[in-house]
Amino acid sequence: MHEFMVFMTMKNNFYHLGIACVIAILFVYRIKGLVFLVTVGATIALNDASSHYILKEGIGRLRPCHVLPDLEMAFRCSNSFSFPSNHASNTFAAATLLSLCFRNTTLLAFALALIVSYSRVYLKVHYPFDVLGGALYGSLVGYLCYRYIYTRILKFIKP
């Protein structure tokens, strides 16, 4: 279980899968897929920056490893603040956007986001509330980017 959680929390483990998904989305959905990919890039960039530089820095909650000295770490501890979890926020933003754009992906998208988010608590680098806050914030950003970026680009392309 431990190795699986470490695998799920590390972004670089998903690069090859991500490239394969990009190719598949472009091949199957063509222009709609390209609009989705542009929107997901904007969504993750907006979500990650606002979550980290505004929320984390503004709230300043310390991570469990900095507060609980006897905590046995299962993973290295970051020096950034804890709330909200950017892993949870980014994965839920992407899952929300993906599920709104392609309804048949909802279960898989949110299952993956939940596993990634749980891995952060399991590895003791976040409190459960950090992950919950990140999931809620990311879902909101994903919805807003769907509503104000994705749908507007599609309307512009298909009048």
Q: Tell me the domain tally.
A: 1
SSE pattern: HHHHHH
What percent of residues adopt helix (DSSP H or I)? Answer: over 70%
Architecture in CATH? Orthogonal Bundle
Shape: globular
Rg estimate, integer Å: 17 Å
Count of discrete alpha- or pi-helical segments spanning 4 or more residues: 6
**Unreliable segments of 5+ consecutive residues:** none
Helix/sheet category: mainly alpha
List how many beta strands DSSP finds. Answer: 0
- Biggest beta sheet summary: none
Description:
- With 159 residues, the chain is mainly alpha-helical.
- It has six helices and no strands.
- α2 packs across α6 and α4 (86-101) runs parallel beside α6.
- It starts with a helix and ends with a helix.
